Amino acid sequence: MISQILSNPAVIAAFLSAIAAIAAAVATWRAPVSAARIGERLRRQGEGELESRRFRMNVFAYIMQGRAEIWSEETVRALNSIDVAFNHSVSVREAWAELYQALNTAPMQNHVVDERIRKLLREMAIDLGISDTLRLDDFGRIYFPTALAEERQARALERQATLQRLAGRGVAAQTNENAALELWPPKPD
């Protein structure tokens, strides 16, 4: 019986037509679901890339804005975020490692630190795709008015005086504590 069915071309054509119709129905039913999944995946990927770029741009902006005071709290936070923000960029991370080494070399050489900051900013700009609008001398041009420099110096002197006062109290407190220990317990008569 199967051999008779297989020998009749009309039956084979009808069978294949039925399979094609079923496949078309399944594809028609699944296409919107698949399209929605693909669309959602692309949207998430796009949002992730946008958020990553925004984070990298913020790190770049904080360092660019704080390059006159590389030790400010915001700039330090941005510097410490480089390895995460630019994890895919070897050149940025190498420039950061060179700056880190220059910052931790005693005695610190300001001209080397300045050159390494400019190099880091240039590598970040290349990674962000904005290097064609910024020149190396743009990274070195810093406006830092005398009033801000004087204010910073006054704060540094105040901090130094406070530390010296606290260190003096620490010695006095230690001396008082040692004297109290000598008095207790009382010596027998």
From TrEMBL:
It comes from the Bacteria. It holds the Pfam family DUF6680. Residues 21-169 form the DUF6680 domain. This is DUF6680 domain-containing protein. It comes from Parasphingopyxis marina.
